[in-house]
Amino acid sequence: MKFAYIAILFFQSTFLAALPLKNEVQYEVKVHPGTELLHIVNYLAGVNQPLVKKSSYLDDVDEWFGEYINHPAVKHAKELPYNDFADLGWCFEGKDMNLSIPDRYGYFGHLISTGYLEKYLKLSQQFAQDTRFWDFYQEQESNFRNWENEFTAALERDLPLQALDDFFKVPFDKVIYFSISPMGTSLKANLFLDEINPKFINYAPVIIPYDRNFVAQESTEPNFEYHHLALTNSVWHEVSHLYWEEINGGFREEIGRLTYSDDYTSNFNTFDDRELNTYFFVHELVADGVAIFLKKEFIDEDLAEEHLLINESVGGMLFRDFVQLVESQYYYNREEKNFRKFIPQFIEMIENKNP
């Protein structure tokens, strides 16, 4: 154990020394009220259970909201296919949870009817009023600030955003909003905030869950002091989704026409739209591929190899090709050709791998 700890400290110090001094990426770390509201509604509905089954925060949620388990919002939410719909929490604003009904719902509109989603939002707003959600949010304010500060300290300690900024070499003009989730439900990037609430077009959210696998100390209280490996991998993967969404605009039709398939791509047959499924497969290829490459570059080659082998064990055979292409054709030339200019080569690689 002592050796492992010393090794992590060595990798961390080497990683920090290799980074540029300036970080151009703006970010905020907060518990978003609307997102947390929908996490609670979905939790009561049993849509997606928290990763940590027992915590002081869950006890507080159960005590405050448990009697509302038969609320119309909770009953309606039981039809949701999974918990990603908490991204719609950005439709709510202010202590009165004022609601802006979207004109479009991003890819959510491909999964379930927009009529259902509109009702889900309206009933959740009613839930907030009936349960005095804002009073609960204010009561938890000191906890929220503590957890936000823990994650902020981890970001400042390990500088994962600096590594991404240096990797992509493309200015990221939005504010990354790390949305702390003490419920501990899902780690994911919100890719379509500009559609569901254009008022917040300058933000790019990532939900950050409480997950005991990501922290060094076990306790009954949520903890967001992510250890080095968990923090870097989580941020590199999810924020790479945000970068990729911003820079691939001129190539989306070309990406959608790709016909590559393997055992892994079947995991992305979510929509009744082959091109949309392909688009999100490529999204994952970029996000996890970048995380693996940076892990190899800054942390440990053996850990990067383990990551690749895990992906290959479930049929993801292109990740190794992606990492090798980045290493041989992009990374050491990125000052002259940023990642946006590298996209045609990346697409060509996938085309050449087609059966």
Largest sheet, strands/sense/barrel: 4 strands, mixed
* Count of β-strands: 6
Output the radius of gyration: 21 Å
The secondary-structure class comes to: alpha/beta
List the total number of helices.
15
Order of helices and strands: HEHHHEEHHHHEEHEHHHHHH
In which order are the strands of the major sheet placed?
1-4-6-5
Mean pLDDT: 92
Tally of individual domains? 2
Indicate the percent of residues in helices: 40-55%
Global outline: globular
Uncertain spans: 1-9
Strand content: 5-15%
Distance between the termini: 46 Å
Protein name: DUF4932 domain-containing protein
Keywords: Signal
Signal peptide: 1-17
Can you walk me through this structure?
With 355 residues, the protein is α/β, with parallel strands linked by helices. 54% of the residues lie in helices and 7% in strands. Strands 1-4-6-5 form a four-stranded mixed β-sheet. Strands 2-3 form a two-stranded antiparallel sheet. Helix 8 runs parallel beside helix 10. The radius of gyration is 21 Å and the shape is globular. The termini are far apart.
